[in-house]
Amino acid sequence: MILPPPADVEAQLAAARRDGDLDRYLGLLAGEELFVPIRRVDARSILDERAETFPNVYFETGGDEFLQVFTRGALPDLGPDVVAMGGALDWAVDGVGRHERVVFNRGTRSEWRLPGATLQPWLDAHHDEVTPLEEQVERLITAPYGHLEGPIAHALACGAHLAVLNAVPWNVLDARRHDYVAEVRGLRDWWGVPDPPAWRATMADLIGDGYALTPGNLVLMLRLRFAAEYGLRNGEFDPLIWAELVDRWCAENDAADQADELRDTVRRVSRCEQRLRADGLVDADGFVTTALSWDVGRAVNIARWGLAAGYCDALTAELMVLEAGSLARRYHQSWADLSAGYVMGRVLHAEDDEFGEWYAAAVRVHHQLLQDPASPWVNLGFGSLSEESEA
After folding, report:
1. pLDDT, tens only, 133-151
2. How far is C-alpha 149 from the chain's CA centre?
3. Could you give the CA distance from residue 338 to residue 314 in angstroms, rounded to a whole number?
4. How far apart are CA 177 and CA 180, in angstroms?
5. Which residues are in the DUF1266 domain (predicted)?
6. Among 361, 210, 362, which residue's Cα sits nearest to residue 297?
């Protein structure tokens, strides 16, 4: 099912440009992540902390130079030697002199060339309207140029938690529409992925041949087995009995060295499920069957970032995303089930059992994705790629 028409900032900018409404135009830009082209070799220097200046790619016409600034949807293909860096409006035009000019969204219907003498006074007068990049979070963005239906859209929607949290389009798999430096740095510093071999190994660990059951997924799987054995529903399982049965399983499967960790994981899962029930992520008598969606959600986004960083080609990224989507459908029953498992996996990954701000944000994103009329989880069926979802 095709999603409802998404909010299209490029179309809004084109309308403001047509009307000559500078305040509306710059006000729209002030709430967006903007992108400045930069030579790939210079971007690598920034990553290696060797760059002393910010070497932009200027656009020349008729002897004049313009700094190019783009919204995400207007980014052109400038060839393999040019990438983009992202930031807020004040960052994008920082250092532009009064007599220098900026061209926004060059070559599109929303193109507007403005001098520094116009931009700086506007920024001075509207400083509070510029949203810093770190505050551009928890936004559901559906890109009109992205995937709106079919297997790839469904698979990308399995990674929507992180996309909404980071305020990036959930439905885009395109190397050029990213902050190259931020994606390379994020993969390296947050995920321990500095190069293509590490990227491939990480994807294998998440959804491929290298996957191994985490303690959380193991105890959840065992609960399913015990429930079937005793003719009970998962939610009717007393945690103490569950822990005792896990002990028995360890003794019978030469896994006595895992018993302490698995008993502690039973306690943590039970505590997390209580919190998920209280916050409406599962029903009052509901439970989580698997936290595999935590791995699936990360895999979708690491595939996207790996493509942006140049660690894989477009076909490989697409195949990885499709595999993640296939796993999601195989082990989850609905978008709500997938989301609850994702949040459970995030809690267990944190290791401190603290339900802090990151947890509160995950809860907000969960409810937004299940309730917003523009959400892929409302518009795309879960079990069958052709069915309509049940809101």
Report:
1. 999 999 999 999 999 999 9
2. 18
3. 26
4. 9
5. 187-380
6. 362
| Residues 185, 193: Cα–Cα separation, whole Å | 9
Residue 312 identity: C
Which regions of 20-150 does DSSP assign to beta strands (E)?
34-39, 58-61, 64-71, 82-87, 101-104, 112-115
Residues 6+ positions from 324 with CB-CB distance below 8 Å: 155, 158, 159, 206, 207, 296, 299, 300, 303
Distances (CA, A) of 331 to 5, 293, 342, 382: 31, 8, 12, 11
- Compute the Cα dihedral for 63, 69, 73, 76 and give only its sign: positive
CA distance 148 to 157: 10
H-state helical runs in the chain? 9-19, 22-30, 40-47, 89-92, 116-125, 151-157, 160-165, 180-191, 196-207, 215-230, 239-252, 259-278, 292-309, 314-331, 335-350, 357-371, 376-379
Polymer length of the chain: 391
Question: pLDDT digits over 284-340, tens only?
Answer: 888 999 999 999 999 999 999 999 999 999 999 999 999 999 999 999 999 999 999
Asked if 218 contacts 344 with a C-beta cutoff of 8 angstroms, the reply is: no
Give me the helices (H) in 256-334, please.
Answer: 259-278, 292-309, 314-331
Contacts of 52 (CB under 8 A, 6+ apart): none
Residues in the chain where the model's pLDDT stays below 50 = 386-391
**Ramachandran angles phi, psi of 70, nearest 5°:** -130, 150
Cα separation, 335 vs 5, in Å, equals 21
Q: Is residue 371 left, alpha or beta, with left meaning phi > 0 and alpha meaning psi from -120 to 50?
A: alpha
* Both structure tokens of 99: 């007599």
**Strand-strand pairing, 64-71 and 101-104:** parallel
